[in-house]
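As the work plan foresaw, our protein records have gained a structure token line. A representative record is set out beneath this paragraph:
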Amino acid sequence: MSPAVAGAEAPSRRRLGWILALLAFAQCIYAIDYSIVFVALPEIRTGIGFSAQTLQWVVSAYAVAFGGFLLLGGRAADLFGRRRMFIFGLFLYAVSSLVGGLAGDPTTLIVARAVQGIGGAFLAPSTLSLVTTTFAEGPERNRALAIWGGAGGSGMILGSLLGGVLTGAFGWASIFFANVPLAGGAMLLAFAIIPKDTDRTASGRKFDLPGALTATIGSTLLVFTLVQGPVSGWTSPTILITAAVAVAVLAAFVTIEGRGRDPLLPLRLFRNRNLSTGTVVTFIFMGTFGALPYFYTLYWQTVHGYSATKSGIAFLLPCVGVLIGNLSGGKLATRFGVRATLTGALLLGVAGTVAFAFSVSRTGSYLELVPGVLILSLGQGTVFTAMYAAATTGVAAEEQGIASGVASTGQQVGAAVGLAVLVAVANSGHEGLTGEALRVATAEGVRSAMWATVAGIVLIVLVVMNFRRSPQAPAAEEPERQDGVTSTA
């Protein structure tokens, strides 16, 4: 049991199981929400009148708000209570999902998606920090992260499956309505299952309002720039202005955090080698593996003409592979160490992505994709679990929320950057093409994006070398610093 639960009665083993089940379920909810809209985009466009230029904001509004508010959500979990922020995030999900399903115009749906993103920004770090503070560092936490990661990694693929099935059977609005009972039910269960937050007012810690404002504004503008850049052009006035303002505001944020007595983001956290390295890993992971559902959908629907339902069913294979990888990741990390586990899983991902790239063609069958997709999905699932086990190691319990927010920010910004880059690679030279010519070019573009993904995964392998060889090693290997952050990971 983690000492983080000190001050409250230690949960029984049975209750720990229920807590973990609920946290995994919540993780699955916001992971599903990341990808569930991809398959439904064509119907959303025709259903409420999006243009080709504005349709991307059904996805981008969520990504921008999620990435922009993550640091705020992480610190709020530390200061105001992880259970409170967990429930608040689920509440935002339920309400915004209802509004999204009822939306009759593009503006309403985009706003609803942005609020969903804000809900995710509070839910993601509170969920991860509840896992890392409820379960003791080492094998116990690795097992918990394997289950939590299984829900999250599989949720990204499962979202595409559900998106296809629900859209085909009930229409695009059903993908939003489905979230309402899920998030609402999880919110009610949290009151009964998760222990109450301990009183944090006695600690004398204050909320860093200047840091919160500059972090949120700067991060939001940065993610907006990265998402909108490929559409507007990187040299357009809008992009140049938002990029410049984002850099200026984030520079002010760093200055404020360096001088503040109780900063939103203590900069000393980055002296934890595993947290800083883990943030880079999550960034590149989401920019490579995290973009795969988009390209699966593009390949199946545009190249081979799959319906939304058939596309959803096609996602069963990667979903199974990711789930197996997730559940194996914790055991492998405990036995071989996180660095070795990540290295092996990434090399597996490289092999699978190469096989997938070779099997992509205009006339190819689904069966030809099976070996590559299954292998890369196994690697993807294992990496998802192990990278968070490494990134959160050695961080003090009272700062797990902001540490989780930092790692999750890397994840969300990486998703925006990676998808933008890979889409640009895949769409290069497609201007003016239609019909069969467009389908052939799309298959070639997907193949090019996969080769770019291979390069990105190889880069992760090099970054992983900066992790400690044995994250479960005792703290005596390297003394704990006075700031409470150990460099042993």
Summary: The chain has 17 helices and no strands.
